[in-house]
Write a structure and sequence with these properties.
24% helix; 16 helices; binds CIS-heme D hydroxychlorin gamma-spirolactone; Catalase; alpha/beta
């Protein structure tokens, strides 16, 4: 019996994978291209008989399936990717000869965002550092900028990387907790390695729970070197600045998201790209003179646990990145992409930062296990767009059919080819290792004294935050340490906090019920740098999500007006109603009050909130605009939960054409920051004004989500 072929639910998509070597066709085949008649039944000796070993199709199908998984990344296993383009302003050419930084040059790229600690299937909205890795396919070869969403790192020397990663990973006995830093081994490490305090502070801040990949800054972390066409060297730090500003979730949202939508960030990125709200970042540089000490204002530029405030060295923008295409195959692109900080192009070189030096070894090494051999750069997503003639030969998964018989240099049998720069017809700009003077020194295992300051930047960061941000930091430390079973570890970390800020330490100690220790280290006071706060400035609403609650009784014209205004303002509207189906204007309901949670939107408009009760009469009382007290027939009580969450998360709520008592009727404060009444035409502009600062932070005082 053959299985009936169902009607296709959508037109067959052409094979968009840019791989002309592998045409897919429409016929089902074996891996060798033989067309198959039946893939639903094994070959058996009669309908009730045993399966025959000779069934080569069965064996091929199962064998391939058995080997579908590759080892996940040891860190940054969970990620989401997107394609885009970098357009250079030309401003970088002054200090860097790289061709992709010349004015107007457009370079295709692929970005992968990730969490660090969790496994591939872990949740997105966990508290963690985020990876921000960019592969530029330049005409001079691939340049990888493998950074994070925080400008400092936990450790100063790569030899400590396995240690810090072992500490944050789940405990080895039971493999819990997953994708969490709130456990004993992590805080044991951090409290014993005070060099990790500055990065821990960033992770405990709102930066540890970003609202969206689209709203994260990116940092190259290390100091790199750029070389101009005339050979002049400068030291630089890379920065990605998001057009939408830097925004975060609040802790309640993060916890809800991890249950209600573990793919929260991945979905947000792909939805925005699908909707045409293409995420954008500017690439900027902080430029430093390449002086002998390689330091600036007392900050050692080779210490990756330190950053240089923008207030001291402004960022100079050199180009813009736009992400405009989702991957067409997660495995082929996002999983198989292989980054490496040593993928450099002429004009960009590394420094002696000991963390960076170790990374230069680690990334190729890990790909050999993860991607099954040394030929991973031949995978389509890793393939340079520049010609490759590398004399590397054979190995597992070799897909090139190399020509010639003399893959060695020099040779006379292949006409001397491939040519080094300056030989034969090769006049291309080569990669030149910068001829840095290496100081005469004694071999040994030690750090410079400048690496010993472990607290001043953590203090500077904390004291530069706004009151509500500092409160979030206090809550984060209290939560994380509250999850540690060992009181010794909690007390040791409190000791570190005492060196950072006495009030922070006291607030956390109060929550933990432990005594407040005094500082035991003298710490330099640095000028605050307000640029690390996320609460200053105002931002466009492009691609932000505007929830619109309507009912099946809401007039078509009201929905049409609100949706059109939301689209016009740049929002992505999300229609919510009690049940699914279509609203009066024909718009499909995006989420019902069963499938929606407050985490899915940045602001909420309430146009109407009645349930269509079977047999209920729609009279003037049940039309849009009429308020039904909770409990009345036709009222959906789930709206109360949605509103309370939205309120606690400091989001703007606009009641559209509702009576004055609307918010009180639903159990919220009647008036107050971010609770707005508006007519239909004024509703969306009201939300735009309130979202410019991301949240209505003034709704709560420093003590947290307790109404004033
Ligand atoms: Fe790393 C992956 C960023 C230090 C070893 N790292 C990885 C990724 C990012 C970073 C974004 C994911 C890339 C992707 O999406 O595929 N890593 C950083 C930053 C660091 C850093 C910003 C410090 C400033 N890393 C670091 C050190 C070592 C590694 C010191 C080892 C000595 N990192 C790795 C790795 C990974 C990796 C094990 C795992 C998967 C991979 O490389 O491809 O080699």
């Amino acid at each position: 019996m053959t299985t009936p072929v169902p009607e296709p639910t959508q037109a067959r998509k052409p094979n968009t994978n840019a791989d002309p070597g592998h045409p897919q066709g429409t016929a089902l085949t074996t891996s060798q291209g033989a067309v198959l008649r039946d893939t639903d039944h094994s070959l058996k000796a009669g309908p009730r008989g045993p399966v025959l070993l000779q069934d080569h199709h069965l064996r091929e199908k199962i064998t391939h399936f058995d080997h579908e998984r590759i080892p996940e990344r040891v860190v940054h296993a969970r990620g989401a990717g997107a394609h885009g383009t970098f357009t250079s302003y030309g401003t970088g050419s002054r200090i860097c000869s790289a061709a992709f930084l010349a004015e107007g040059v457009k370079t295709p790229l692929f970005v992968r965002f990730s969490t660090v600690a969790g496994s591939r299937g872990s949740a997105d909205a966990v508290r963690d550092t985020r990876g921000f890795a960019t592969k530029f396919y330049t005409e001079e070869g691939v340049f990888d900028l493998v950074g994070n969403n925080m400008p400092v790192f936990f450790i100063q020397d790569a030899i400590k990387f396995p240690d810090v990663v072992h500490s944050v990973k789940p405990h080895p006995d039971l493999e819990i907790p997953q994708a969490q830093s709130a456990h004993d081994t992590f805080w044991d490490f951090v409290s014993l390695h005070t060099q990790a305090q500055a990065h821990a502070m960033w992770v405990m801040s709102d930066r540890g729970i970003p609202r969206s990949f689209r709203m994260m800054e990116g940092f190259g972390v290390h100091t790199f070197r750029m070389i101009a066409a005339d050979g002049q060297s400068s030291l630089v730090k890379f920065h990605w600045k998001p057009k939408l500003g830097v925004h975060s979730l609040v802790w309640e949202e993060a916890m809800l998201a991890n249950g209600a939508d573990p793919d929260f960030h991945r979905r947000d990125l792909s939805d925005a790209i699908k909707a045409g709200a293409f995420p954008e970042w500017e690439l900027g540089l902080q430029v430093f003179e390449d002086n002998e000490g390689q330091s600036f204002d007392g900050i050692d530029l080779l210490d990756p646990t330190k950053f240089v405030p923008e207030e001291l060295v402004p960022i100079q923008m050199v180009g813009k990145m736009v992400l405009d295409r989702n991957p067409s195959n997660y495995f082929a692109e996002t999983e198989q992409v292989a980054f490496h900080p040593g993928h450099l192009v002429p004009g960009i070189d590394v420094t002696n930062d000991p963390l960076l030096q170790g990374r230069l070894f680690s990334y190729i090494d890990t790909q050999i296990t993860r991607l099954g051999g040394p030929n991973f750069s031949q995978l389509p997503i890793n393939l340079p767009h520049a010609p490759v003639n590398d004399m590397l030969r054979d190995g597992m998964h070799q897909t090139y059919i190399h020509e010639g018989i003399a893959p060695y240099h020099p040779n006379s049998l292949d006409g001397g080819c491939p040519y080094q720069a300056g030989e034969g017809d090769n006049s291309k700009m080569p990669f030149i290792d910068f001829p840095e003077l290496v100081a005469e020194s004694v071999k040994g295992r030690s750090n410079p004294v400048s690496f010993d300051d472990h607290f001043s930047q953590a203090r500077m960061f904390y004291r530069s935050l706004q009151a509500h941000e500092r409160r979030h930091v206090q809550q984060a430390y209290s939560f994380e340490l509250g999850k540690c079973a060992s009181e010794v570890i909690r007390a040791r970390q409190l000791q570190a906090l005492a060196n950072i800020d006495v009030q922070l330490c006291a607030a956390v100690a109060r929550e933990l019920g432990l005594p407040v220790p005094g500082a035991d280290t003298e710490v330099v006071d640095r000028e605050p740098c307000p640029s690390v706060s996320q609460a200053l400035g105002s931002w466009p609403v492009d691609g932000r999500i505007l929830g619109i609650v309507a009912s099946h009784h809401t007039e078509a014209s009201v929905i049409e007006t609100l949706v059109a205004a939301a689209n016009h303002a740049g929002f992505q509207p999300l229609l919510l109603s009690s049940v699914g189906g279509s609203l009066a204007d024909g718009s499909p309901v995006d989420r019902t009050l069963l499938t929606a949670r407050s985490i899915e939107f940045d602001a909420l408009l309430i146009a109407d909130f009645l349930v269509p009760v079977a047999g209920a009469k729609v009279d003037s009382d049940t039309k849009a605009g009429a308020v039904r007290p909770p409990g009345a027939i036709g009222f959906d009580p789930r709206l109360v939960l949605l509103l309370q969450e939205t309120y606690r998360q400091s989001k703007a709520i606009v009641a559209v054409d509702q009576p004055e008592s609307f918010f009180q009727d639903l159990g919220l404060e009647g008036t107050g920051p971010g609770l707005v009444h508006a007519s239909v035409p004024d509703a969306v502009p009201g939300a735009v004004a309130l979202l410019a600062t991301h949240r209505v932070w003034e709704r709560f005082d420093e003590s947290g989500p307790v109404p004033k």
